[in-house]
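R.M. (postdoc): so does anyone remember the format we settled on? I'll just put the structure tokens first.
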């Protein structure tokens, strides 16, 4: 069982920045992936970003490309999502995900575990 603990959500004005963190309860060596999905009220869940930890390859959804950056710490068990130039349409609950396999060629994961979610609200 892997536990994911998220932090860093909150309220920010349009154009601002936030950084989300997700700590995994296991040391993330090996062919593991971690990433972020989000879901806004009344909308389907959307892929945000992922990282294949074995080679540090990163992937992004089209709506966040160029504004968001996924990274990890040196110990490898915490991933971050730096979100710049936030817009009201970025408002959603953001979920950290963990998978024991690599993402597909488009970065989409098959998560084995989900975090509890953290709310990001961007005001106009």
């Amino acid at each position: 069982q892997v536990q994911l603990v998220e932090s860093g959500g909150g309220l920010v004005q349009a154009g601002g920045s936030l950084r989300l963190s997700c700590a995994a309860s296991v040391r993330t060596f090996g062919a593991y992936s971690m990433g972020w999905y989000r879901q806004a009220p009344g909308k389907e869940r959307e892929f945000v970003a992922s990282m294949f930890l074995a080679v540090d390859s990163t992937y992004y959804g089209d709506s966040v490309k160029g504004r968001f950056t996924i990274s990890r710490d040196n110990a490898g068990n915490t991933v971050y999502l730096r979100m710049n130039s936030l817009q009201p349409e970025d408002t959603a609950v953001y979920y950290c995900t963990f998978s024991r396999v690599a993402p597909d060629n488009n970065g989409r994961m098959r998560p084995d575990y989900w975090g509890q979610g953290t709310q990001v609200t961007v005001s106009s």
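R.M.: ...and that's the designed sequence above, right after the tokens. Also worth knowing: The mean pLDDT is 93. The two ends are 40 Å apart (CA to CA).
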